[in-house]
Write a structure and sequence with these properties.
With 494 residues, the protein is α/β, with parallel strands linked by helices. The chain contains 18 helices and 19 strands. The protein is 35% helix and 17% strand.
Length: 494
């Protein structure tokens, strides 16, 4: 099994939950709950990318996760924590004896990578053995941490929409879209596991990354041998260690060491404009010009106002190296020269930069972007209003639809009854409440039952599910999806 067996699942919940088995109505035999990203008026995100459940299930919930040692550890821990005996030792031992330590739980979920409008059910959880009704919401704490990969995958895809729109408008094609946004966020997240989850979520949409943890997660949990790519690149330490007077030598060293293949060089250690005009555009001009499209130099500004700096840099490079016009009439630097902006990038600044570039007559082909904190860290559970709520219970064999409806906040009202997700006759995805859905229409798939993972998704499948559609570009409709997106995106490949 893939479960991490040094991990004690009994200790992986909010501690108040271990007292809940005493609080449900007598004779309750089923608790059924669901997870959604609630609709919020005025939110910039109307739809979400479902991603990350498979990792949580494989790592933490699959197989024999309850053992006598873990029960004893939890019993002692909660005794000290609550200063009284409230831990359900007997209940957990029954799971051990009756189910060999496997969780009697069923989880049905949207296929990973699917794009679902806010306000719809994304997964449901229910107990499969009436004795263990309390398990359903015991695992809420862990399952709600799904908010993180879902939110990163969603934001990353919003970046992709913006990039696709500008790239199509200024170059006439979407070639290279998958490499346009590079994940620079490894050092900016809270932990190795956040880097893995966030890094992999970004790889649903793009294949540029330096976050190794995300690549490993895609490899180990989503059957993708190598999900993303990078190029040799300088950082400030490798430039400034030469001393201020030898910046040209530092640049030249990078060109020498990486003579084939693209290479990125941070050029703002002292004066980005001087570096572009006098070092790249003069002293090293011949060295730059002898490189090819496959071995291009990518210049990296890393400070100042992103849009202003980028426009000034691109104008200096045009003066030094010239440019040509593409089929859409936009200017493009020589193919051996590109720029990457990795500082100050978020959804609003990237749009502003691309807008200003096109107003100045430049194609989006000239630039790539790197993003760290806005992609992986400047977000929380409220970004997409992620919530897990109970909607159905069975007591004495009788079912009842339940819900919350706070008088102080109607937006926090919850769904009722057993839920299913369907595409209606108008083609729109909607949640059917109160058990009224038809099983054959249900888009939710049983992915986990009684300790066993029943359905696995590869990153390739997930990328296909998350690919951009015509309407994502906010431009005119094109003849066919293939023509619009180009094979490399449809396949989710580099």
């Amino acid at each position: 099994t893939m479960a991490a067996h040094d991990f004690n699942f009994l200790l992986a919940t909010d501690s108040y939950k271990i007292t809940h088995y005493k609080q449900y109505p007598p004779d309750v035999s089923k608790i059924y709950s669901y997870f959604e990203c609630r609709r919020k008026k005025g939110s910039q995100f109307n739809e979400v990318v479902f991603f990350g459940l498979q990792y949580l299930l494989k790592k933490y919930l699959t197989g024999r996760i309850v053992t006598e040692d873990k029960i004893q550890e939890a019993k002692l821990f909660y005794q000290m924590h609550f200063k009284q005996t409230v831990f359900d030792e007997e209940g957990w031992r029954k799971i051990l004896e009756k189910h060999d330590g496997r969780l009697p739980i069923r989880i049905k979920a949207v296929p990973e990578g699917k794009i679902i409008p806010r306000g719809n059910v994304l997964f449901t959880v229910e107990n499969t053995d009436p004795s263990f009704f309390w398990l359903t919401n015991y695992i809420e704490t862990m399952l709600v941490q799904m908010w993180y990969p879902i939110t990163v995958a969603t934001i990353s895809r919003e970046f992709k929409k913006i990039l696709a729109k500008h790239l199509k408008a200024t170059s006439g094609s979407l070639e290279g879209l998958n490499e346009k946004l590079h994940d620079f966020g490894y050092r900016g997240v809270s932990s190795q596991e956040s880097a893995a989850l966030g890094g992999a979520a970004h790889l649903v949409n793009f294949c540029g990354t330096d976050t190794v943890a995300g690549l490993l997660m895609a490899q180990r949990y989503y059957s993708c041998p190598m999900a993303g790519f990078s190029i040799p690149a300088a950082e400030h330490s490798t430039i400034i260690s030469w001393g201020r007077s030898r910046e040209k030598d530092a640049f030249e060293q990078v060109l020498d060491q990486f003579s084939s293949g693209p290479v990125s060089v941070v050029s703002d250690s002292y004066d980005i404009f001087n570096a572009c005009k006098h070092i790249w555009g003069d002293k090293l001009k011949e060295r730059v010009m002898e490189r090819s499209q496959d071995s291009c130099l990518v210049i990296r500004p890393d400070s100042g106002d992103p849009a202003e700096t980028l426009i000034e840099v691109i104008k200096i490079l045009e003066d030094c190296f010239g440019c040509s016009k593409n089929s859409m009439g936009y200017k493009v630097l020589p193919s051996y020269l590109r720029i990457i902006q990795g500082d100050g990038i978020d959804l609003s600044s990237i749009n502003e930069i691309l807008q200003k570039l096109s107003e100045e007559g430049w194609s989006a082909e000239n630039v790539l972007f790197g993003c760290g904190s806005a992609l992986l860290q400047k977000l929380n559970r409220d970004t997409l209003s992620c919530a897990f709520k109970c909607s159905y219970v069975e007591t004495n064999g009788k079912g009842m639809d339940v819900y919350k409806q706070p008088v102080t906040d109607p937006s926090k009202g919850s769904k009722r009854g057993r839920l299913s997700l369907r595409r209606n006759s108008g083609g729109f995805i909607e949640t059917v409440e109160r058990g009224a859905g038809k099983p054959e229409e249900d888009l939710l798939v049983t992915v986990f039952e009684n300790g066993v993972l029943l359905r696995e998704y590869s990153l390739d499948e997930i990328r296909k599910n998350a690919r951009l559609r015509d309407l994502d570009l906010n431009t005119t409709m094109y003849n066919s999806e293939k023509e619009l997106l180009g094979k490399h995106i449809l396949n989710g490949l580099h």
